[in-house]
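Please fill in the sequence for the structure shown.

STRUCTURE ENCODING:
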């Protein structure tokens, strides 16, 4: 379909920064055909009036666990290891494939409605998140969470599952696959090396949790005599392009290793605060030239998948911890949530900016919302004022997946009903106030 975004304010790249200009955007098929002047012969089949609208590149959630959305608000105010192994892991053991599917459907519903067009997911039940992605029209990078010790049967089985899923969905160009060794406390060094070798053999990226909590640091230091970042380097995880989620408990040597290997760091402010893990040194990472991108983590630890909320936290927290209002500016925050995310996923030539030739992944905000009035500085508004409810229309891969706040590829009422059935069956609806 040919779509014209007519006379709309648009967030556009200009060198290494973004600007907002009033212009037209022409979409043909799944790509942006032109910005500004109409391409020869273009005839719009649908025109979206740009009056009081702002078009931005779809936000990119670089670290989440979509299946966890039905675990929202069931494991709160707990220490990290109690949260993970005392509450979340037992719930995961009860999960069926259908539970994972409906959890992913709920997550995708929330993400689209708050302007996310692509997410990087670590999941457990193969075929379920990918099934939800294919049905809903969103874009995603998927990895099956891998846990293993040496060449044990469990780790080998999970690796085989990861390749089976990638092969099953190889014809969907909105789906990309990574390998996902879970973390240093669930994967030993020998298994990390096996995963790294497989990633190299298949030309795949790696997605891993690193240096998230103090207990992780202490455990790795005890077992390996080094930091989790040094361990990951030692066992080859950085021999291929890698996205390291969290990186909260890191020092200057860790940062130099991340930079040396061009590792992308996915920071997750809300989850890191909620679990009491601290604050990633984002300013130091940026100053060192590390590619920092943004994620929500799963709804079990956030408890939201709203990237506008995460963007606000990103651009506010580090001003406070760094004691300088220039730390992580509004402009930097927008780039971290879009351009840097695309780069981390190896999709910088496809998504992350509104430019001719790129995929048409666009979120359109309605400026007639109290949070966005007056329009003094819309770039500042995106980072400091917007809350996600202003997202009116979302286009992914050239298809309109939400218009006028109504989803076109998801039956919301069915999703909510199915998720509520899951929590009742699992006994997660026991209310304690």
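FILLED IN BY: designer on duty
SEQUENCE:
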């Amino acid at each position: 379909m040919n779509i014209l975004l007519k006379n709309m304010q648009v967030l556009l790249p200009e060198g290494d920064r973004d600007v907002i200009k009033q212009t037209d955007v022409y979409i043909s098929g799944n790509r942006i055909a032109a910005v500004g002047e109409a391409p020869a012969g273009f005839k719009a089949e649908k025109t979206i009036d740009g009056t009081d609208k702002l078009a931005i590149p779809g936000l990119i959630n670089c670290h989440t666990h979509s299946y966890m959305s039905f675990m929202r608000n069931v494991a709160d105010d707990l220490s990290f290891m109690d949260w993970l192994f005392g509450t979340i892991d037992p719930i995961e053991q009860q999960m069926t494939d259908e539970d994972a599917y409906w959890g992913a459907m709920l997550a995708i519903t929330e993400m689209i409605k708050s302007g996310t067009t692509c997410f990087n997911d670590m999941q457990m039940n193969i075929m379920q998140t990918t099934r939800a992605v294919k049905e809903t029209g969103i874009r995603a990078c998927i990895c099956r969470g891998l846990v293993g010790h040496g060449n044990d049967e469990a780790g080998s089985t999970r690796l085989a599952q990861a390749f089976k899923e990638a092969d099953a969905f190889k014809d969907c160009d909105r789906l990309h696959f990574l390998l996902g060794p879970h973390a240093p406390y669930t994967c030993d060094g020998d298994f990390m090396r096996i995963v790294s070798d497989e990633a190299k053999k298949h030309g795949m990226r790696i997605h891993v949790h690193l240096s998230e909590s103090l207990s992780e640091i202490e455990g790795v230091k005890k077992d390996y005599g080094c930091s989790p970042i040094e361990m990951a380097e030692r066992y080859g995880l950085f021999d291929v392009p890698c996205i390291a989620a969290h990186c909260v408990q890191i020092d200057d040597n860790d940062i130099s290793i991340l930079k040396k290997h061009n590792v992308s760091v996915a920071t997750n402010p809300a989850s890191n605060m909620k679990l009491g893990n601290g604050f990633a040194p984002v300013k130091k990472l940026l100053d060192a030239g590390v590619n920092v991108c943004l994620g929500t983590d799963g709804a079990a630890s956030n408890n939201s998948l709203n990237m506008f909320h995460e963007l606000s936290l990103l651009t506010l927290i580090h001003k406070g911890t760094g004691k300088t209002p220039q730390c992580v500016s509004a402009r930097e925050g927008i780039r971290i949530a879009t351009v840097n995310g695309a780069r981390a996923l190896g999709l910088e030539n496809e998504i992350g900016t509104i430019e001719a030739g790129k995929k048409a992944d666009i979120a359109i905000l309605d400026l007639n919302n109290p949070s966005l009035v007056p329009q003094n500085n819309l770039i500042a508004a995106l980072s400091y004022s917007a809350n996600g409810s202003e997202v009116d229309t979302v286009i992914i891969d050239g298809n309109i997946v939400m218009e006028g706040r109504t989803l076109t590829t998801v039956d919301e009422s069915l999703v909510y009903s199915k998720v509520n059935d899951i929590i009742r069956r699992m006994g997660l609806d026991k209310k304690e106030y």
